[in-house]
């Protein structure tokens, strides 16, 4: 075979038994030479070739016809590692002539191809392709690609499994590490609670046993999962027809149970941001009040589903007050709960408090605002004579709760509200009274109230809960600058300090609902 290749395949490999017989002296003796000039060995080759199957492929056919050229991509056979020739060409040996000695004839005998039709067996698989020269190094690398890909897939699967398990462990550890730096069961004293210590109860001690901490976590999680709170439903129906947002909105129900709380890192970020704002405003002589409107589930825990009874733990609000008593937070929860003795402060089919609930909150907050200084001592909730029920607006109508009972409780004012001017974001003015329920969608807006309790200006950052608070703070302050607080899932917050320096108010009020404690300044929401 010519060229830089040497191959042993079906056409070149001989049957060892027949080949041995062809090499015997008797088979190549001069007297065995016929008139045609052929030897017995030649006849043996022809006989063997006759018994082999006819070439079927174009490559085999052309090779049998003598057209094989080394390097022909169609004809070049697969090469066996055992017959690879690194350099040089295989010389073509001359054919023996009749009458030469047996040794020479045997040396030049053509080996008989193997029998592949015996017993119907399979043809021998081709050998491995070998390349040399400039392409050898490339081939030696590229032929390992499938193996490398397989190894990478295995590694990726292992790493993915480790990461998934790591995520689960981290989530569990994070949940168990969410307790702020206050010992469970410890009681915060009044000395340790300087902000508004005289105007509101001290923080409740954090119970030592928590359903979402330690060994109890797994059982609580099983109950939570069994009731499919995270299964895509927007609402959760509680007792007596009361309805609550599910985790569809900012992990609301998980917050209600203490399943979702701020981790230590998140709480530190929250504290650092708002303590920094309070310190900067204090340097400007401007006090700030953080008024957290409690979630319905924090005031009406008795209306939560019965299956939550044993898995209601401390909330972020609880931990935040206990861990950072120096924050100027006004906790109105107790006052809003107590007001239930007279009328409902929330509606069964709405997540917001009622107008009466907002009034009860301001009545609770007013003593803390009075403690800020002489100019605030007349701040109070407007006097009321009674509470009336009005038609309710179901927040969950699209979830199948479309009825509109008279569950909206509204205070009846003891005195006629004062005249007030409202300047909308478009600059247009309208005349109304101080009990006007200014909506968040109107913000930014400015109000000027005649005969207000004080002549002070309040810069107020608020959300939709501010609608029920508006009649009270509009009666308390001669001027209000009402803005959306802008707290959102991307971690953004308003630049309170910059705007306070611009408008120079007498007080800054930051009001937001409790479920906004899911967000951390500067950090995207989970």
TrEMBL record:
<dbReference type="Pfam" id="PF16822">
    <property type="entry name" value="ALGX"/>
</dbReference>
<keyword id="KW-1133">Transmembrane helix</keyword>
<feature type="compositionally biased region" description="Basic and acidic residues">
    <location>
        <begin position="67"/>
        <end position="79"/>
    </location>
</feature>
<feature type="region of interest" description="Disordered">
    <location>
        <begin position="400"/>
        <end position="433"/>
    </location>
</feature>
<keyword id="KW-0016">Alginate biosynthesis</keyword>
<protein>
    <recommendedName>
        <fullName>AlgX/AlgJ SGNH hydrolase-like domain-containing protein</fullName>
    </recommendedName>
</protein>
<feature type="transmembrane region" description="Helical">
    <location>
        <begin position="144"/>
        <end position="163"/>
    </location>
</feature>
<keyword id="KW-0812">Transmembrane</keyword>
<keyword id="KW-0472">Membrane</keyword>
<dbReference type="InterPro" id="IPR031811">
    <property type="entry name" value="ALGX/ALGJ_SGNH-like"/>
</dbReference>
<keyword id="KW-0808">Transferase</keyword>
<keyword id="KW-0732">Signal</keyword>
<feature type="region of interest" description="Disordered">
    <location>
        <begin position="1"/>
        <end position="119"/>
    </location>
</feature>
<keyword id="KW-0574">Periplasm</keyword>
<feature type="domain" description="AlgX/AlgJ SGNH hydrolase-like">
    <location>
        <begin position="235"/>
        <end position="379"/>
    </location>
</feature>
<comment type="pathway">
    <text>Glycan biosynthesis; alginate biosynthesis.</text>
</comment>
